[in-house]
């Protein structure tokens, strides 16, 4: 039986339940949070299975969560987002609190703005939008191709078109950049998101980013990254925060990027696990390993392409494979969006399709430049009255 609790915003205060919006405190663990809210630790953590306990570790500082209280101030429900697809739902059933992981109900909007450089793109976008995420995405997109420090001039125009997810009427998760443009020394520079989910410049050359090698050469992908998946055996929503590469036991596993090993030991359902820290806040994880290569240990620096371990089936595993994860500042991201052996240059039909997409993007950029589209800021969040409905479906 699957429960879906849906919150409906009402512009009235006739209903007794009130929703509060809070930001997850820096350094606070899920257990500390439960203690602070005076919620039962055994019921909502210690009695959970290992997978659900590990899910709670995905809570990150800065994430906005919601608490639904009755008119006496008692907690009725809580929604704690883990990523942009899955959230923890704590709710009161009669006199007892219960835990479940459920999908996030959201809508995606395409948004845009144009601005003129004040002193730097980072400062300009921050001042225009108040969003560190948008500023970081823009600067990172041109990181390997433009020199903002020496070539930028006050008054140079820029445009961003991006997709933003909204949850309960507020933006959440990282925006997805669709196209970015900045003019420098009277020349325009573009970044485009193509239909293959990779970024290209105006010449149809793939934009160099954080380049990773495939950790098992020639292996078949047996399971893809997903932030929500209905488990057919456990009958609950779970996340698969990595990519599985099926390969024979003993197949060499290579470091996907250069970096320093910060963990090399056994860890719960991961089995034998290696974690490597890379530049710019990236970390890769290699799980279910048969064994580590001789000399591999915590603190060792390894180079991209270097053999570090061998495929196995340790931990919670039904057969020999590598479970590979990529994280940035602790948050799991899809490795296939950045895993590349070499940068790609589009040709033939792929290039023609990209150029059609590019033409539409360019027309949109021109429109926002001419209209001087400004960023639309949302009003501050205020505690609002809500009602909630519960639907029960057999399944």
UniProtKB/TrEMBL annotation:
One Pfam family recorded for the sequence: Csd3_N
UniProt keyword terms in alphabetical order: Hydrolase, Metal-binding, Metalloprotease, Protease, Zinc
Biological processes annotated in GO: proteolysis
Residue stretches making up the Csd3 N-terminal domain: 22-104
Keyword Cytoplasm among record annotations: no
InterPro entries in alphabetical order: Cell_wall_metabolism_enzyme, Csd3_N, Dup_hybrid_motif, M23ase_b-sheet_dom
Superkingdom in the source lineage: Bacteria
Coiled coil: none
GO MF annotations in UniProt: metal ion binding; metalloendopeptidase activity
Name of this chain's protein: M23 family metallopeptidase
